[in-house]
Amino acid sequence: MSNLDTRPARAECGGREDVAARPVRELLEPRSVPLGESTVVRRLLPNLGRRMVGAWCFVDHYGPDDIADEPGMQVPPHPHIGLQTVSWLHEGEVLHRDSLGSLQTVRPRELGLMTSGRAIAHSEESPREHARFLHGAQLWVALPDAHRHTDPAFEHHAALPVVEGGGAGVRHPGFSATVILGELDGAASPGRTYSPLVGADISLAAGTDVRLPVEPDFEYAVLTMSGLSEVDEVPLESGSMLYLGCGRRELRMRADRDSELLLLGGEPFEEKLIMWWNFIGRSTEDIQQAREDWTAGRRFGTVEGYAGPPLPAPTLPATPLKPRGRTR
């Protein structure tokens, strides 16, 4: 998915010095951002107060939207460098096309994972014949410096491992977690990762109270996709995100009614990054070159089959893209 902001903010992300080395409870408020013709998303990362959670550096939550009489998601071809995109749906379908020639419909609880590496372009759209509701999340993972020029790739995994316990292999009625990326409670996703992290889609039935084992060296955040839950004793409504810091070995989750959550975590990202528009680089020159290449039709390839022109790159700010750290 693209950042369609025509005046994207510049942000330097990464570095451990701003990571809470202890458990915290920091509620992140979303901001509404239009995406394409008929979709409005709630942007939770980057946030005014926090830029990253592990290598996770961008989180949009959208829906549930009634698109029965609408075109739904329509994101024209656009470029990426230095990151992975994760498409995750609870309702609806998204048709992915990219400059590698990939053509894939991603459905609920299926992983669409695109690695941009040195350069890729893609589009995302609701199919012409689509379900009534669209509900999901789009996430970006920053690539570490050693892998940011890797070959671009696209993976689709229709079957993902499911955890049904609260630790030590014990099954817990009312709890299940689909492992999107990384590992959770002994189960590993087939999606390729380049840094220690985890992403999991968690379902809590009404009345569930569970303690989920987590890594004390990871920092975590939880996004409520639907329902009303309580995480680490903090009530979370749909669309809200709670940053939890590091230092936990277990995380308590409970729900008085059926709820669905996304758990995101990872080792705090060591490197400083610049994120501007759809690019992640290490310097102003990285971003300038990527923009020039996209505008000139170089490096990113062509997305075939999308009925419309590619997105033009916004104008770069006049001032250099300076470091700003993980938090403001």
UniProtKB/TrEMBL annotation:
The keyword Metal-binding applies. Gene3D superfamilies: Jelly Rolls (2.60.120.10). Keywords: Iron, Metal-binding. Binds 1 Fe cation per subunit. Residues 200-298 form the Pirin C-terminal domain. Coiled coil: none annotated. Residues 305-328 are annotated as: Disordered. Fe cation binds at H78, H80, H122, E124. Its cofactor is Fe cation. Belongs to the pirin family. This is Pirin family protein. It comes from Streptomyces armeniacus.
